[in-house]
Amino acid sequence: MAKHRIALLSVGHAGVDFYQGAVPAMVPFLVAERGYGYVAASGIVLALTLLSSVVQPAFGAAADRWRMPWVVPVAMTTAGLGVAVSGVTGDYLPTWLAVALTGLGVAAYHPESARLARQASEGSHVGMSWFSLGGTLGFALAPVLVTPLLAAGGLAASPYLVIPGVLGALLTVSAMRGGAAGPGAGGPAGDARDDWRAFLRLGAVMVFRSIAYVGLSAFAALHAGGGTAGAVALFLLFAGGAAGTVLGGKLATRFGRVRVLRWAYALAVPAVLAAVLMPLAGIFFAGLALYVPFSLHVTLGQDYLPNRPGTASGVTLGLAVSVGGLASPLVGALAEATTLGGALLVLPVFAALAWLVSWPLAEPAIRVSR
């Protein structure tokens, strides 16, 4: 592996996925300063994911046809600008559109960056897990940085949040100068066939996982009581995800990706339930269990679609992560009709569905190098 390039790409990944954690961390401040209800607050999370979900496959298909390395730093800067503007817009619609711009940047970033990471890691499970870890650490750092910043300066301090995206873009450009992949690079060569049936089943697994995870991340801070307790809950969720990302790559090298994926989702069911019933005690383990399969989704998807690594990367790193946000307003509406804790009890069901749907999956005929 080109370890220095993986390291730089991982830090850049942290810079862009910081914003996927920053938006949930801003939700308690939007509720406090602007009086948003559960539905309005979950609509902000929806703004992050809706546009991203729609355009993500298009960016992936484009990455399979053309080499577009310039998209990566532009997308990272765009993601930062959206969050920076969202806090200084007074009305709901401009705020929603600014967060949607962040979602667009996140969508544009993932397919091309994952293709570059696949090339730099030479198909290694561990190498891809380190790249995925960067994104998870970005999630984890978001509440740690966003909460004290906004607690001190209010939403008016949000323009400072552009900094991680700009710094990440500069580091990513440095990594890209060390080598670049052409169209389709990083995938197996030859007459390998795309297994769309297996890929679509994997996609269903990721959607169910995404609903469980995004539901937790959207409401964890409020469920824990907001303020410092809310920031701690988000940090524990994202820190568990970081640990799970690294653990997943190491376990897959020893036991195989599909087997580890099934184990993780079996453990995710009680872990997510514990996170709902005991937010600060159980939420770390929910993040751990839900993120063990995360980097495995990426390499499995790329191997199921060896001729379309950009499309596979866009879906596994982007669409399948963000699509859970489409369900967050439904969770918010259920919370307003009942209680937040009661609404979150639906999330373990989706973890169980991910486990059930994963059973027919098998290792791709073309295996990645280890």
TrEMBL record:
Q: Where would you find the membrane-spanning parts of this chain?
A: 36-55, 67-86, 92-109, 130-151, 157-177, 198-222, 228-251, 263-292, 312-335, 342-362
Its cellular-component GO annotations read: plasma membrane
Q: Which GO terms fall under molecular function for this chain's record?
A: transmembrane transporter activity
Record has Membrane as a keyword:
yes
Sorted alphabetically, which keywords does the UniProt record give? Membrane, Transmembrane, Transmembrane helix
Lineage top rank: taxon? Bacteria
Keyword Plastid set for record = no
> What name appears for this protein in its UniProt entry?
FSR family fosmidomycin resistance protein-like MFS transporter
